[in-house]
Amino acid sequence: MTEPIRVALCDDHGVVRSGLRHILDDESDIVVVGEADNAEAAVAIAQTEHPDVFVMDLGLPGTGGITATRQVLHESPSTVVLVLTVHDDIAYIRKAFGAGASGYLVKEAADVELVQAVRTVAAGDQYLHPRLGAALVAHDAERPTPAGPGGELSEREQEVLRLIALGLTNTEIGEELYLSVRTVETHRAHIHQKLNLRTRAELVSFARHAGLLEDGGIE
């Protein structure tokens, strides 16, 4: 007999968690193994339960859902994160997937899509509502990949550049992205080489004009 999908929930509203649990408890192949109302509690569940899927809200008190997603995945690499949020704009979607989430679902669709989304990400695939996926494709088509004389920046290099522009040190960038300082230094060297820019002021200006700072306040 196939083992059930072990799911944990993180949302700061108890009534929301209760509703999600009710939906999932009706499925014979899914079992809820933990609930959290903040990032710290979510990390604790990841450390002890190692759920297959963590359903994560973005609007958490204190440490936000984006950072919580990174922390959960760091503590439990076998876990996948399904973001469940009220936010349907592109900046949040990009940040969530950039943090390592495997799925993104808006709460208004949870009653009909949650079970399918959980099963999809648990199987190793990504999940994104078709309407949001179409919007993301259209947005990416409108905004070209940042590039310089030395070539296009990779997704990771764009993220490092964004954090450089926000004033973070190499050590802080490493902590934010769970990278070693040496790896951050390597990405930074590639950024300087590809863009042919030398000063932080030049990098900040490039990042701003490339639109990399549009979602800088999302945690």
Can you give a write-up of this model?
By secondary structure, the protein is an alpha/beta fold. The chain has two domains: 5-139, Response regulator (Rossmann fold), CATH 3.40.50.2300; 147-209, Orthogonal Bundle (Arc Repressor Mutant, subunit A), CATH 1.10.10.10. The chain is 52% helix and 15% strand. It contains ten helices and eight strands. It has helices at residues 14-25, 39-49, 65-75, 90-98, 110-122, 130-142, 155-165, 170-177, 181-195, 200-209; strands at 5-10, 30-36, 53-56, 80-85, 103-106, 127-128, 147-148, 151-152. The strands form two sheets. A six-stranded parallel beta sheet has the order 2-1-3-4-5-6, sandwiched between helices. A two-stranded antiparallel sheet has the order 7-8. Helix 2 runs parallel beside helix 3 (65-75), helix 7 packs across helix 10 (200-209) and helix 8 packs across helix 9. The termini are far apart. Mean pLDDT is 88; it is low at 137-142.
- The 3D shape can be described as elongated
**Rounded Rg:** 18 Å
CATH topology heading of the largest domain: Rossmann fold
Second CATH tier, the architecture of the largest domain: 3-Layer(aba) Sandwich
Strand content: 15-25%
Q: What is the overall pLDDT average? A: 88
